[in-house]
Structure formats: C-alpha cells, structure tokens
Design goal:
The protein has 477 residues and is α/β, with parallel strands linked by helices. It has three domains: 124 residues, Methylthiotransferase, N-terminal domain (Rossmann fold), CATH 3.40.50.12160; 231 residues, tm_1862 like domain (pyruvate-formate lyase- activating enzyme); 81 residues, OB fold (Dihydrolipoamide Acetyltransferase, E2P) (Beta Barrel), CATH 2.40.50. The protein has 14 helices and 19 strands. Helix 8 links the parallel strand 10 and strand 11. Helix 12 packs parallel to helix 14. The longest helix has 24 residues.
C-alpha cells in the first residue's frame, strides 16, 4: 500500500543542511537554505532541531565520495525518524545507485538547479511512495544561472564566495566535473553586480569569485559577450574598500591584463589560483591539457614582472596513470623552479566514466602515490617559507576574522591568503574594545555580524609554518 515515507510535519517545517565539498557546493547550500527560508522553513543549526535533513554531498574524487556516503549513513542512523535527502554532486552523479543502496532515504536531488529545492521538498511532502523508494529528481541546468538570493552565508563573517559561472567546457581526462555540473553556464554581469551590491550593503568585505574556470567567463549566453576583464572592471567601479579575489583560473587562457589591473587597483587581490596540474608534457597530454612546463614558467615570470607582490597557488596530481619516475622528476623540477607561494598535492583518484579513470594499465601503486605526494609536499614546504619571509618587516593589510578569547591576539588573512586553503596571519596587540567576530559555525553564520570584521594594518614579525606573525598597528577604517 502506498503511504507517505518519512515526510516532515507541515506544522513545524525546519531544515538542517550538512554541507560538504567545495566553495561552489557551499554556494548551492546557501541558495537552498535561503529558498526554503523564503518558503516558510526554519533553517536550524543542529540536526536534532530539524524536521528535514539535507546532506549536500561532494562527488569529485573517491575520498570525498566516501566522506559523503559515510556522512549520509551516519545521519540516517542517528535520526531514523527524520526524513533525509541527498543533494549536491554525488546525488547528481550517482542518483540511482544512492536511491537503491540507501532505501531509507526520503529523496535524492541533483545539483543543476539548487534554486528549485522548494519544489523538490514540496514533492516529498505531497507525493505518496512505496517505503524504500526515495524520490529522485534531477532537473536540467537550463541555459543560465538563477540569481542566488542568499539570506545566510556559511563562510567566515565578512567573506563570501560569489559564483559567477557553473559547469565546464574543458575535457581534462581525469575530471568528472563536466558530467556532474554540465557545460559552462555563466551569470550575466548585471546579476552579479546586483548581488555584489546587496552583499556589500550587508557588510561583507571579501568577495571570492568562483567558477570552474574564471578566465572563461563571458557576459551573455552565446559566448561572444565581454569577458572576465569587463566583469572585474565593473565590480571595481563600485565605491568603498573591499577585496576582490579571483579564484580558479585555467593557465592556458590566463589574461595578463588581470595582473596589471591588480597592480593599478589594490582591491583586486594579486592572488591567482592556476591549475598547472603537472610539469611533464607527456603527463599533461595524457591529462588532456595543452600546456607545458616551459610555457608555464614563462607565464609565472611575466606575472611577477608585472606585479612582484603577487601570490600564486596551484594544485598537482601525482601518480597519474603512466607517470614514471622521470615524469615525476620533471614535476619536482617544475615546482622547484616555479617557487609558488601555495601548492596542493593530490594522489590520482580514478573517476568512473572519465578517460583516465577507465584507462587500463599504467596505474601507479597506492604506496608509490603516497610516497610521491609526501616528497612533493616536502619539497614545497621550504619554498612556501621563503616566499612568506619576503614580507618580514613590511606593513600589510589584514582582514581580521577571529579573536582569541582572553588574549590580545586575533586571526586574519592577508591579501595573499585565500579562505580555507592557505595560512593565516596571527596578529598580536589587537585592542580589546574592538574585537573581530568569531568564525562561522559549520552550518549557520556566527552571531557576530560581518561589520564586526575589519581591515587593519599589521607589521609582519615572523613566519611560523604557513602562518605569518604580525603586530597590530591600527584599523584601516
């Protein structure tokens, strides 16, 4: 007999969102929470308070997939009487497998249209289903991105991720993102500017522009509109003191004009995350990448010639199928020569349905992948230290985000440190009558308003690991 399966009570609709994954997934969680709030739901900070639980999953690499599955199983076990639905990348990619493998789920909702979460939840409430038959809905992405209309943020107070595009048109052999998030779809500049102004009005200080490839952004849907430079100039035409941080840029199409613009207007942070991926041309071709080490080194040199204060980050994959010791040595040589400020190293994780994931032969043993990762990380550590030491004795702007109770110490970030992935600035001597806000909790913003977060000047006195030590000199505003 058909019956409603674990549907939330309509007299007290409350939702808890367990968010996993990248910054783009975080934006999707914020959109879903805001749309549900606008529809009358309470967005609560603990699963015990919720009549519906959403697990916003990550489906990029195997460890992230496993974390999402483990989290979902733990939530189901801890809250057997509350309906649980999966959203996000894993839900989009493996909807059928998840529905079959976790029949106790209430539903599975894809990631292409997070703004349609209310429709999905209304179907959960309304439709009758057999027990053990989760509702699966994967709405198409559509030609463009909807306006986010985010009422709450999951990032640090004062900082926000601003998604300007979704999906990807590149065909890297190791990456499942095009199949998970679809082809590239951009937001129009007018939509981005409107949200930027709203968030500025709420006291936000740092705007981290995110896309799969920010350099490929264009205004309009036919691919012929103005590009990323026009968007940056539009945002920088706005008055006031703020930080604009461009993240995730494809090095082979990186426009050097961005670096020049960062030199002219310090609000555009001279921080660029360029996905080099490897230093061997053989491995780059296996990855479906067009670049090569010599060209990338020339690009790095050109960037630093235009703006010597630039900070560069990149990620690298070790243990890619067919990577021999000589290929790995070429990667080590490239990282040594590049002297990047920040490096992330990942062991190759095969993705089903991708050319590299389905390739037979040439696999690198797990122990060898781990050895190569550790060796590359050990090589990079002193490079990062040297790059940080060039700021010793200099006065730098810092965005204070967290105070240490009972001390005169506050934590923040400089222009060369992106949220979550890089080091911090430990600022000493911060006056006690104007502390920064606490960090945001995992699910809801902290009680401290973004306006409590502020820019200060600090003199760098030391380097500790990946962090800078600095003395407070005064507020900038």
């Amino acid at each position: 007999m058909l019956s409603p399966v674990n549907t939330p009570p309509v007299n007290d609709p409350s939702v808890y969102i367990e968010n996993l994954g990248c910054a783009k997934n975080q934006v999707d969680a914020e959109i879903m929470g805001a749309r549900l709030e606008a529809a009358g739901w309470r967005w609560v900070s603990a699963p015990e308070q919720a009549s519906l639980i959403l697990v916003n999953t990550c489906g990029f690499i195997e460890p992230a997939q496993q974390e999402s599955i483990d989290t979902a199983l733990a939530v189901l076990a801890a809250h057997p009487d509350v309906p649980v639905a999966l959203t996000g990348c894993l839900a989009q990619r493996f909807s059928g497998d998840l529905a079959e493998g976790m029949p106790e789920l209430a539903g599975v909702f894809g990631n292409r249209r997070p703004e349609r979460i209310v429709e999905f939840v209304e179907r959960l409430l309304r439709e009758e289903r057999d027990p053990g038959s989760p509702l699966v809905w994967l709405p198409d992405g559509g030609p463009h991105l909807a306006d986010p209309q985010r009422s709450r943020l999951l990032s640090h107070a004062g900082s926000v991720f601003l998604k300007v595009a979704e999906g990807c048109n590149h065909n890297c052999s190791f990456c499942a993102i095009p199949s998970i998030r679809g082809v590239q779809r951009t937001r129009e500049s007018s939509s981005i500017l409107e949200e930027f102004r709203v968030l500025r009005g709420r006291g936000l200080r740092e705007f981290n522009l995110v896309a799969q490839d920010l350099a490929a952004w264009y205004d309009g849907q036919d691919g012929t509109g103005p590009g990323i430079m026009a968007l940056l100039e539009t945002l920088l035409a706005e008055p006031g003191d703020f930080w604009l941080r461009p993240l995730y840029l494809y090095p082979d199409t990186f426009p050097l004009q961005i670096v020049e613009l960062s030199r002219r207007d310090p609000r555009l942070l001279p921080y660029f995350d360029l996905s080099f991926q490897h230093g061997s041309v053989d491995i780059l071709r296996r990855m479906g990448r067009p670049g090569e080490a010599s060209r990338y080194l020339d690009l790095i040199s050109s960037i630093r010639e235009i703006n010597p204060d630039v900070a560069l980050r990149s990620s690298f994959i070790v243990g890619f199928p067919g990577e021999r010791e000589n290929h790995f040595q070429q990667l080590l040589d490239f990282v040594q020569a590049a002297e990047l400020e920040w490096v992330g190293v990942f062991e190759f994780s095969p993705q089903a349905g991708t050319p590299a994931g389905d390739r037979k032969g040439g696999s690198v043993p797990a122990a060898e992948k781990r050895r190569r990762r550790e060796r590359l990380e050990a090589l990079q550590q002193p490079i990062t230290t040297r790059r940080l030491e060039r700021f010793l004795g200099r006065t730098i702007p810092v965005l204070l985000e967290e105070s240490i109770q009972g001390t005169d110490i506050a934590l923040g970030r400089s222009r060369m440190q992106a949220p979550e992935v890089d080091g911090l600035v430990v600022v000493h001597g911060v006056r006690t009558d104007a502390r920064a806000g606490d960090r945001t909790g995992a699910h809801l913003p902290s009680a401290a308003p973004p306006s409590a977060v502020r820019f200060v000047d600090a003199r760098v006195t030391g380097v500790t690991g990946v962090d800078l030590q600095a003395d407070y000199l005064g507020d900038r505003d």
